[in-house]
Amino acid sequence: MNTLKTFRIFILIYIAILPLMGLTTYFSFDTLPITLQEYLLVEDTKGSSTWNMILGGCFLALLVIALLGMWLFKFWAKTLYMIIMVVSIPLYPWFGVIIMTPWESLFNDSILLIDGILISMMFSSPVREAFTKKQLP
């Protein structure tokens, strides 16, 4: 299989997993122990969760834009994707305790693996060349 097609397949898988992760968050909430459910309900009523939602929404919108640009092999998308990845790492402590069901964790870990695959493919040939070719007039 062509490396560029494989790169695009990983982008499609990434985009497919994002809504699945959201759905499992919503539908698997009642599978958590009561104590954890109560903790999450209390955390959702705090004012800081609004800022978390705004920040998360901005990151999600930028991520979707970056993935769409990467699909078209735009150089700016590669840069945007790397900025999102680098900026998101120090933000982990800011979000505090994160509780996930096994399904949420499965999808989250899958997305992290695909992040690594996409990054490594973007900096190796021939995907790297596809990003640089688009810059020529």
Walkthrough of the structure:
By secondary structure, this protein is mainly alpha-helical. The protein has six helices and no strands. It has helices at residues 3-27, 34-44, 48-71, 75-91, 102-122, 127-133. The radius of gyration is 17 Å and the shape is elongated. The model has no long low-confidence stretch (mean pLDDT 86).
**What is the beta-strand fraction?**
under 5%
State mean pLDDT (0 to 100 scale): 86
Low-pLDDT sequence parts: none
What fraction, in percent, of the residue positions are helical? over 70%
The radius of gyration computed from the alpha-carbon positions, rounded to a whole number of angstroms, is: 17 Å
Question: What order do the helices and strands follow?
Answer: HHHHHH
* Structural category: mainly alpha
Q: What are its keywords?
A:
6 helices; mainly alpha; 137 residues; single chain
Draw up the topology in text.
Blueprint: H1 3-27, H2 34-44, H3 48-71, H4 75-91, H5 102-122, H6 127-133
Structure, briefly:
The chain has 137 residues and is mainly alpha-helical. It has helices at 3-27, 34-44, 48-71, 75-91, 102-122, 127-133.
